[in-house]
Amino acid sequence: GQNIDQPTEMTATEGAIVQINCTYQTSGFNGLFWYQQHAGEAPTFLSYNVLDGLEEKGRFSSFLSRSKGYSYLLLKELQMKDSASYLCAVISKAAGNKLTFGGGTRVLVKP
Amino acid sequence: EAGVVQSPRYKIIEKKQPVAFWCNPISGHNTLYWYRQNLGQGPELLIRYENEEAVDDSQLPKDRFSAERLKGVDSTLKIQPAELGDSAVYLCATTGSSTDTQYFGPGTRLTVL
């Protein structure tokens, strides 16, 4: 089976930095995704990591350590519009390339 | 390019009634997924199609849920009869052959009374 853990909720101030951690246990790891989901809307793709290291994309960066089963999503220069849920999801070859989601981390950005 | 289209966006029904959801994928995307998302949780896979073939329906409650993708493009997901616990958002996602990234539709929010 697969297990994905991420914090339920985080609060941060506008302009600050927030780091959302995700730990996973899976067999046949084949990549990790981060999605952003605003309330009542569809998840939208943010990043994909399959190799160890940091992927930077504007204000958002994602890091992966396969040996530790660990990833984080870093949000810099927070804006009010970044208030959303952030979903960590792992794709597993052993499960036929099935994507399994964590419960999501709700980030609240305060002025 | 148009994204994944789903309809209806909202549906309210009484328990024991049937309900159907429709999904139109991004053009050229052969793989289609149906997920269920309960409030405050991540999406959970119900079924995955490769073209018209259901390649993973292990988590679809087959006593009341059914799905089809007859021509390998549009798909429908049906619940009959609906139960109170089926209240959730039903998301459709699709992906093309050259990527593992799934693109989601806006979802159908189902409320069963």
List keywords for this structure.
heterodimer; A: 111 residues; mainly beta; six-stranded mixed β-sheet; five-stranded antiparallel β-sheet; 11 strands; 0% helix; 60% strand; B: 113 residues; seven-stranded mixed β-sheet; four-stranded antiparallel β-sheet
Cα distance spanning the termini of chain B: 37 Å
In percent, how helical is the residue content of chain A?
Answer: under 10%
Low-confidence stretches of chain B: none
**Assembly state here?**
heterodimer
Query: Major sheet of chain A: size, sense and barrel closure?
Result: 6 strands, mixed
Please state the overall shape of chain B, judged from the principal axes of the Cα atoms: globular
Q: With helices defined by DSSP (H or I, 4 residues minimum), what is the helix count of chain A?
A: 0
Radius of gyration of chain A: 13 Å
Care to describe what's here?
The complex is a heterodimer of chains A (111) and B (113). With 111 residues, chain A is mainly beta. Chain A has strands spanning 3-5, 9-13, 18-25, 29-37, 44-49, 53-57, 60-65, 70-75, 84-92, 98-101, 105-110. Chain B has no helices and 11 strands. Chain B starts with a strand and ends with a strand. Chain B has strands spanning 5-7, 10-13, 19-24, 31-37, 44-50, 53-56, 65-68, 75-79, 88-95, 103-104, 108-112. The mean pLDDT of chain B is 94. Chain B has 113 residues and is an all-beta fold. The A-B interface holds A 4, 8, 30-31, 33, 35, 40-45, 48, 87, 89, 91, 96-104, 106 and B 4, 33, 40-45, 48, 55-56, 91, 100-107, 109.
